[in-house]
Amino acid sequence: MVDRGTGVHRRCPGARLRTPDARRRPAATGTVRVASTIDGTMHDPLRPPLRPPSRSPRRRRRRRRRRFAALGVVVVVGVVVAVSFTLVGGSDRPSSVASRHGTTSVPPADRSTTTTVPPTTTTVAPTTTTTDPGTLPQTDQLPTTSDPAFAAAMAALWNGVVSGVPATAMPAFFPEGAYVQLKDIAGVSSDYTNRLAYEYGLDVTAAHQLLGADPSDAQFVGVDADASYAHWVPPGVCDNGVGYYEMPNARVVYSVGGQTSSFGIASMISWRGEWYVIHLGAILRSGSGGEVDDPQAGPGSPAYSGTC
Predict the structure, then answer these.
(1) Which residues, 6+ apart, have CB-to-CB distance to 140 below 8 Å?
(2) Among the listed residues 157, 208, 178, the one whose alpha carbon sits nearest the alpha carbon of residue 269
(3) Separation CA 286–CA 288 (nearest Å)
(4) Could you say which DSSP state residue 37 is in?
(5) Which of 13, 62, 105, 221 could form a disulfide with 253 if both were Cys (CB 3.0 to 4.6 A apart)?
(6) Which stretches of the chain score pLDDT less than 70?
(7) Cα 101 to Cα 92, 95, 98, 110, 202, distances in angstroms
């Protein structure tokens, strides 16, 4: 310590004299320096351990490659497992849905095969068998002039007139079988062929000549018939064994070069609810040749008569 009066340093009682060596020597802390087993140097245990000497860059690269290779294998295996699970799970779904609906599921291997079966087409042949109405019994049905059957019959009559071929007009003529049932006379089939149908053919030819030098120029307009003129002819009248309706004096209307003309149908009678021509040119004939019933310039008009 320093004496304030003299300025001389004095040693305090009980104080230890420190030498320069002692001042430089560290105080004892209970720690021991241990020699390193690697390079023989000393180190303090309280300090972090020395880092081991670094490996060479080549060894580090090799190690990194091995790590990346191992990681790649793990990734590939994971992808394969995931894809396999997806495929197996996807193939099971349709089977489960099908089983819920009570249908037979198709194995996955068979779904890649597509079989195209051509559609089965069954063509039904049109019915071409036409029953001859003359083989069927008569009815009391009143015919109409507005049904397709009447239009077809009148078209056949017109085609026969234009062509001048009576056979073409025969669909409009009264059937032979019906005439046999209708008439109560001897030799009814001969009367039909040699008189009735023969005269019809003559009248078709006569109407053809009425059309002029070029009958193909004539255009069919229609048939004018007054339904109120139809009347019932009972059995026993005019040698008839069966009753029928009769339609007198209908008109066939046509035009040539813009000029309208017409001629008559002397008589139509019914069979089973359809109209048929029975006399074209005349009921009571004036000669042995063909006749045209009341030809006129213009459409003319139907007329009533109570003929049978």
Answers:
(1) 232, 243
(2) 178
(3) 7
(4) T
(5) 221
(6) 1-129
(7) 15, 10, 5, 20, 77
Residue 184 Cα distances to 140, 248, 283, angstroms:
18, 22, 18
Cα–Cα dist 45/49, whole Å: 8
Tokens of 123: 């063509």
Q: Please say whether the beta carbons of 193 and 240 come within 8 A.
A: no
Rounded to two decimals, the pTM is 0.59
Contact 147, 191 (CB under 8 A): no
> How would DSSP label each residue in 220-266?
EEEEE--GGG-EEE-TTSTTBSS-EEEEEEEEEEEEETTEEEEEEEE
Which residues are 275's β-sheet partners? Answer: 270
pLDDT of residue 173: 98
In the block, tokens 């019933």 appear at 293
Q: What is the pLDDT of residue 210?
A: 94
For 131, the enclosing helix (H) or strand (E) is none
CA distance 275 to 230: 10
Report residue 163 CA to chain centroid gap: 44
CA-CA distances (angstroms) from residue 192 to 89, 130, 236, 251, 263? 88, 22, 19, 24, 24
If 0-12 CB within 10 Å is exposed, 13-18 middle and 19+ buried, where does residue 96 land?
A: exposed
pLDDT in tens, 207-246: 999 998 999 999 999 999 999 999 999 999 999 999 999 9
| Cα separation values, 44 from 23, 41, 47, 48, Å | 21, 10, 5, 8
Rg of the chain over Cα atoms, rounded to whole angstroms, equals 64
